């Protein structure tokens, strides 16, 4: 059989579909960068079109408005991040059985996201910044974080309950709240740390930030839990009015 006979025939429909996919990817790449730079409210469809040198008509052809485009940006990255972290926590739980630790739970929860920020920066930097904006924004931010990441958070909470069985549930949620804020602030890469430290530290240096703050998370969580256990109940606290 000749080489020509064994080659797959060219199908125009496939080329058209591929061209459409490439067009959408270019739009999503541009939108992701712009949303990371200027936030959801600071970007228009015309801005996205101008970034890649096309007519805004093309954007409207593929997306039904800015919210549709913004949702597509989230749908491209967030499920990957969420599933990677859920898988990591599941593997960790299977490996350690009933010997869950705060350190292990927190590493399983966030290490995959930290690692892509370090080793696959081009693909994940902008979305990390968008996530950081969302984690501190009411309304649209809370909606996106809840939609894509609540199952990840609740899986972490379950692990932390096993690691600290004597800790009350409210303290564990507060601990997550503060750790999550620190993590997404780090992903924002604002450059403020660079200015404050006069260049000694860089908000883009994820390897240094990871090696510095990873050991501090468990210590802070345990101190918070211990303090909560020692604190008198409200009706027994002499410092509180009754």
Query: What is Rg?
Result: 23 Å
Kindly report the average pLDDT value.
86
Q: Report the end-to-end length measured between terminal Cα atoms.
A: 92 Å
Could you give the count of β-strands?
Answer: 0
Provide the helix percentage.
over 70%
The arrangement of helices and strands along the chain is HHHHHHHHHHHH
Name the beta content range.
Answer: under 5%
How does the helix and strand content classify structurally? mainly alpha
* Tally of contiguous helical segments: 12
Largest sheet: none
Shape: globular
Low-confidence stretches: 1-9, 235-242
Q: How is this structure best described in words?
A:
The protein is mainly α. The chain has helices spanning 3-6, 12-38, 45-52, 56-62, 66-96, 102-119, 121-135, 140-163, 169-188, 192-196, 206-213, 216-230. α2 (12-38) packs across α5 and α6 crosses α8. Residues 1-9 and 235-242 have low confidence and may be disordered.
Which keywords apply here?
single chain; 242 residues; mainly alpha; 12 helices; globular; disordered N terminus; disordered C terminus
